[in-house]
Structure formats: structure tokens, C-alpha cells
Amino acid sequence: MLFRSICVVLTAALSMASAVGQAAPAEGGPAYGPRLEGFDYPAPVKRFPFESQGNALEMAYLDVAPKQPNGQVAVLLHGKNFCAATWEGTIAALTGAGYRVIAPDQIGFCKSSKPQAYQYSFQQLAYNTHALLTSLGIEQAIVIGHSTGGMLATRYALMYPKAVSRLVMINPIGLEDWKAKGVPPMTVDQWFAREKQTTAERIRAYERSTYYAGLWRADYEPWVQMLAGMYRGPGRDLVAWNSALLYDMIYTQPVVYEFGQLRPWTLLLIGQKDTTAIAKDTAPPEVRARLGNYPELGRVTAKAIPRATLVEFPDAGHAPQIQDPDALHKALLDWLASSEPPRTRRPD
């Protein structure tokens, strides 16, 4: 009864916020449903139904088998502005090398459920992911996380150390505590107001400068439209609301203080032109200038993690698996094939 009352209050608050918030500028392009209905994935989408926090939820995921299995499983954890589909090239590289690949959409993202009332935490998402893998009979896996997925991969490895054979993080965020460094806090309502302004133009401009080091190619555009399409569709407010809750989780739950507790062999793949820092645009100029220094952050993190290998990509931004897939996948597969990985190296 209490939970139902809370849901009613939150629903009313969401409706009110939707009514008073400014509408996003009109633009052309595809419109997708709140669970990314209408956008095709590179493999059949499967569903994992479960209950959490009083909600009946579904986690969408890809389960892609290799033609010549090597007996190992790789789990791919996407970033905040990414989905299981954006791992398309990495899935092909891993399955081509014999790995079975599981790529979920986390709750609140893409083709998975977007509840109106959910307390997002990295431990909750890690628990959900572990439940999915348990349902598939997977006891141990290589865990690969990108961006926000790197924060989730860290939490997963801390919670389930025996379930992680190796840990890989591609330009993870959470390598610094933005609040402690001076980024002003925002309420969920403030995050929601920001998210309601999402358009393809804004996504593209941000990704060009941060993900791809100021460059743009035609093959980046489908991922812009994937995100923007949900904000053009009938579930725009629900998508923006869940995004606001997720940003609050990312900002308030740093993992940087726990890297020393990680036990698996860990690979850090870091594009050196990345400047990502959550909400740094709200910080004073002197604070903003100190944030998102990935060359420094990557090296500090590699020293903090007990068994870490750092590979740097000099010309890549936040998403080297998309910007420079050949170099990234070679570094990844070489490291996975090594019996005792080197401490640090740069790609040839």
C-alpha cells in the first residue's frame, strides 16, 4: 500500500514536471518507443523477467554464440549514452575469437524496462546483472565495461569477485569524484529539466567533442539517432525521468575510492583525448579546467588497481571501441590471450 502511494505521488510529480518543462526543439528523424521499439539490434533481443523494488521488470540482452567456442564468456556493460547495440563491433571481434558474449541493456536504458519509481544504485544494477547471468548458468565471466559501464563493472567485481575471471574498462567514468572536486550538486528535478532538452543536435555536438576528439564520421550517426529517437517518441518524459535518476546515481556514487580492493587482472583501455566529467558545464571555470584529464586519470587508476595493465590510444576520445575499433580490439584480444598480462604498454 505504501509503495503504491509512493508511485502515485511520483507519477503526479512526473506529470507536473512534464507540463511545466520546456519542450525540446522540433526536429526531424525517427521516433522510437520508450523501450527503443523500432530500433533494430545486431542480434536477436532476449528478455530476462524479474521483480525488483516492487516492480515487474524485463532486462533486454543479447546472447551471441561464437562459431568456434573457446569456453569463455564475455559480459559487455554499456555506458550512459550507449546500449547493447553499440557494442556491435566488439561483439563481432569477441565472438570471432571464440568468446560467447552477453550484452545486457541495464534497467532504465534502451530496450529494458523504465520504471517510474526505482532507487538506482550501482549495487542494484550489479545484482540485476548477476541474476541474469545466474539464470543463464554462467558462473564466471570476463567483465568488460565502458564509460558508466566501467563504474558498474567495478562495483560488480567488488561484489562478486569469484564471478569475474578478468576485468576490462574502456574509458570508464568515475575515475574522479566530481562532487569532491567542486561540481555543484543537482536535484533529480534539475537533471530531469536538462534531460528534457535532449535533441539529436545536442547529442551530436557533445559526442563529436568528447567521444570522437572533434571528428565526425557517418558511422557515428546511427547511435545519435538511437538516443534522440526515444526523446522524439511517445515515452519521452519517462525516458528523460529515468535518465535523470541515472545521472543522480552516477554523480552521487563514486567508485574511485575502492579501486585498490579490485582483485582480478584488470585492463584499462584509455583514449587520451577524452575529457568526460559529469555536469562539468555547471562548474566554475577553474574547476572545469581540472576535470576529465584522462591521460592523468588513466595512469593514476592503473597504479591504484593491484593487477592493472594500461593501454593508451593517443588519438581517441571517450569511445575508442567505436572510433578506432581495430586498435582497441587487437589490444583487448592480445591481453585476453596472455597468461600473465604486462603492467602497462601502448598500442603499436
UniProtKB/TrEMBL annotation:
Occurrences of domain AB hydrolase-1 (ranges): 75-325
Family matches, as InterPro entries: AB_hydrolase_1, AB_hydrolase_fold, AB_hydrolase_sf, Epox_hydrolase-like
Keywords of this entry: Hydrolase, Signal
Superkingdom, taxonomy of origin: Bacteria
Signal peptide positions (record): 1-23
A Pfam short name: Abhydrolase_1
Keyword Hydrolase on entry: yes
One function term, GO molecular function aspect: hydrolase activity
SUPFAM superfamilies xref list: alpha/beta-Hydrolases
Name of the protein in question: Alpha/beta hydrolase
